[in-house]
Amino acid sequence: ELCSGGEMPKVLTFVSYKETEKCRAIKELSRFLAEIGKDVVVANTNMITSKNEKVIATTESEADNTNTNAQNGNNKNSADGKGNSSAEDKWGLEDYLSGTTSSINDIIDNKDGIVYICAKTEALNSYEMLKSENGKKCFEELRNKYDFVLVDTVGFEIANDAEAVFGYSDVVLSVFSCGKTTYKQAKALSEIA
Question: How far apart are CA 158 and CA 100, in angstroms?
Answer without folding.
Answer: 26
